[in-house]
């Protein structure tokens, strides 16, 4: 009587008898153990082969085009020198719309001094842009909430300055505002905001619509400052992080009946936080942007080119030159003092 053929190198696998793979591969040929014997022979043959066993070629990873998650970003930043910006703000402040607007503007041509060169996350951008701007079933464009359960998304842009210079690999993180709001209220949650430790630049998005709303102005202005203090003072960032405040939804402040009043509120708030944070040793820039001019169309898209210019600006390396020693006793120090004088 012929022995049952050996179809699998795993002892006890019933594939030869039942046609079913013990590891549940379907079709069974997909199983890496199928067609091998424990001795390395193929197709159940009992003659030991002298040729080396065929190994499956290592898998080639193809980028899906979706927004990157942590593991993708780690692999990407090993191969590229990246600039990372964390976009931070309360829920519905306009973070995702800002990111979508940068992408959409680059699709139309250069933005400020930058040409679009490429992106690993085109699908991630397109999804955000579609929901923010193109959904024709809505009366007006509306970006869906980024869910608190969504992992932090990292979006990539390769940008070339038109004035010359190397291509910048920009990574922008997009996370739910609820996560930032929760961390402001309970600072033990700050350590979960891992993307902030990566950031070369922290961009705090200020909702100008809320700030210029007389009913919400006081509470919102206070909460916005609390967010910056809470994150910065609890070690969310690296020491050398650049901080900026980006007042968005500027179109909502330009309605002719309230334009002058709103501009004054914004200017006053800017002066107040520059003075307050300056006294606390926090340096930052205050900028204005409109990412979706739906309330006052005449405002148009505002400040996007400047935003990209700041986000890709070269990092200034610290000055490591030794200060000159006055009346030094060593010849070498006297020489250095002459050179640096
Ligand atoms: N008028 C106006 N509306 C804007 C602007 N930017 C965003 N919005 C609107 O503000 C709402 C919230 O925008 P999002 O980009 O989803 O805000 P978010 O900060 O990502 O919100 P979460 O994901 O919930 O944290 C959406 O309805 C946008 O259409 C703007 O520049 N002008
Ligand atoms: Mg969002």
UniProtKB/TrEMBL annotation:
Residues 34-55 are annotated as: Disordered. InterPro entries: DO-GTPase2, P-loop_NTPase. Residues 84-294 form the Double-GTPase domain. This is Double-GTPase 2 domain-containing protein.
């Amino acid at each position: 009587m012929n022995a049952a053929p050996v179809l699998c190198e795993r002892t006890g696998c019933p594939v030869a008898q039942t046609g079913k793979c013990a590891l549940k591969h379907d079709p069974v040929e997909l199983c890496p153990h199928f067609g091998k014997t424990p001795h390395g022979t193929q197709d159940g043959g009992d003659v030991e082969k002298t040729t080396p066993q065929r190994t499956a070629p290592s898998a080639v990873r193809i980028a899906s085009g979706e927004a990157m998650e942590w593991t993708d970003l780690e692999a990407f930043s090993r191969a590229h020198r990246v600039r990372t910006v964390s976009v931070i703000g309360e829920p519905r402040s306009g973070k995702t719309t800002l990111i979508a607007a940068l992408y959409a503007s680059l699709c139309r041509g250069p933005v400020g001094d930058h040409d679009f060169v490429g992106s690993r996350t085109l699908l991630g951008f397109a999804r955000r842009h579609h929901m923010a701007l193109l959904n024709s079933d809505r009366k007006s464009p509306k970006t869906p909430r980024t869910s608190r359960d969504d992992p932090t998304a990292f979006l990539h842009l390769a940008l070339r300055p038109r004035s010359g210079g190397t291509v910048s690999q920009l990574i922008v993180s997009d996370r739910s505002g609820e996560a930032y709001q929760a961390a402001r209220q309970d600072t033990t949650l700050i350590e979960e905001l891992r993307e902030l430790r990566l950031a070369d630049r922290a961009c705090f998005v200020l909702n100008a619509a809320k700030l210029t709303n007389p009913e919400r102005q006081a509470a919102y202005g206070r909460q916005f400052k609390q967010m910056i203090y809470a994150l910065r003072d609890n070690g969310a960032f690296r020491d050398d992080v650049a901080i900026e405040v980006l007042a968005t939804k500027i179109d909502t402040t330009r309605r002719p009946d309230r334009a002058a009043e709103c501009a004054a509120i914004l200017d006053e708030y800017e002066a107040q936080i520059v003075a307050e944070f300056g006294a606390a040793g926090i340096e930052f820039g205050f900028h204005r942007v409109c990412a979706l001019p739906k309330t006052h169309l005449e405002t148009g898209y505002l400040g996007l080119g400047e935003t990209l210019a700041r986000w890709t600006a070269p990092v200034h390396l610290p000055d490591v030159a030794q200060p000159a020693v006055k009346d030094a006793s060593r010849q070498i120090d006297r020489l250095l003092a002459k050179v640096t004088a």
